[in-house]
Design goal:
single chain, 272 residues, alpha+beta, Type Iii Antifreeze Protein Isoform Hplc 12, six-stranded antiparallel sheet, two-stranded antiparallel ribbon, 8 strands, 23% strand, elongated
Length: 272
Amino acid sequence: MKQKLVLIASVVIGLVAAMLTKSYLTAKDREVAAWKRQFDKTNLKITVAGVKRAIPSGTVLKAEDIGQIDIIERSVRGHVVKIADYLALVERRTIRALEKDSPIFWSDIEGGDPKSRGLSGDIKDKMRAIAVNVSGSGSVSGMVQPTDHVDVLGTFSFPSKDTPAEMELVTMTILQDVLVLATGKETAKSMLLATRPSSGSYNTVTLEVTPREAEILVFAEQIKGRLTLALRNPRDVYYEKSLPRVDFKQIQAEIGTLNEFRQNQLLRKPSK
């Protein structure tokens, strides 16, 4: 009988101990969960732009160089680049070396945060921004946008070579492969931050040119020239070394040759 009592007491003590242990562990779990919630609350993680490889100072960033990493927000010192703004890093130059998988700060980028700069911060060294007047047709029906590349053509009224007393219209290509910085007041920056699409309506286009090219464009407009933009693929770096001035006689003389070149060389159609 005594042995049975001892056995029952042992079982009861074991159950009580198990219950106390479970209660203790449950309380600890709640304590750890509460601590984790508090930690997560005070150590919020954000997704930011980071580099996928080691980037030397002076590197022009490409889209494939940029990835995303999660970091604790309060650990970030300075203006870190949010992942939503990563497109603003493409084609921007670094001013210091960046380690692989490290976050990117605007202070690492030449020119800093585009939101805090005007258009002047986007102009390359030794270049200038100049606005030219264009109509809808002169800007490819309003399809030209910031960051596009264009050729600039001008049509002018010049004294005739054959009859100096008379005037004749002449068209010529003034500049080739020119970067568009803005259309109206729309820049690449404002397009990135816009909440709704642009109307596509504008009367001026701002181009990035050299000081000498700026003089030519200003003079072209001052002599009542009409400027027209020819949109081109930004990857196309081909340029014509020598383009003639086009007047009525030039059209008459070359229209056959131009059409033959288009059909045979561009469209690859056999001549008959």
